[in-house]
Amino acid sequence: MSDVVKVVIGDRLGKGQAVARGVEAAGGVAILIPGMAADLRVGDVMHSEQADLGIAFCGSGGAGALMAANKYGYKVEHHLRSVEAGVTALRNGARVLGFGFLDTEELGRRLVEEYRRLKAEGKT
Fold first, then answer.
1. Could you report the per-residue pLDDT of 45-92, keeping only the tens digit for each?
2. Sign of the torsion formed by the C-alpha atoms of 107, 84, 51 and 3
3. Is residue 52 within 8 Å of 90, Cβ to Cβ?
4. Nearest Cα residue to 59 out of 30, 8, 102
5. How many Cα atoms occupy the beta-carbon half-sphere of 76 within 13 Å?
């Protein structure tokens, strides 16, 4: 069982570079979807890459996460607005997290660290 955490990142405005740096700083693999409306492709890329987590950024924090849930059945939490809310969502079993624009290194780092901890405890 690998402890490498794969995280797909999709941002409505084609950003997401900061959160990707945080994922990588924590030892994870960031798969950053390029281009506008990338949040709407998070579920597709997670499925094809067999990723552990997905992060969808848009103004509301819901569209990409809800598409991933509807198409692939991923457990999601959306309309998240803080790093702590994301960590709590992981603890509650979500694997796709929908945020308003929160492209920060801290978010990527903390999510990978928490997912790794949950996995070690057998809670994923």
1. 999 999 999 999 998 888 999 999 999 999 999 999 999 999 999 999
2. positive
3. no
4. 102
5. 27
Q: Are 3 and 29 in contact (CB under 8 A)?
A: no
Paired tokens of 23: 């994922």
* Residues near 122 by beta carbon (within 8 Å), at least 6 away in sequence: none
123 to 84, 91, 115, 118: CA distances (angstroms): 18, 8, 9, 5
Give all domains of the chain, ordered by start, each with its CATH number: 6-120 (3.40.1400.10)
Residue 78: its H or E element: strand 76-80
- Rounded-to-integer distance, Cα 62 and Cα 55, Å: 10
Is residue 79 within 8 Å of 41, Cβ to Cβ?
no
CB 101 within 8 A of CB 62: no
Per residue in 15-24, pLDDT tens? 999 999 999 9
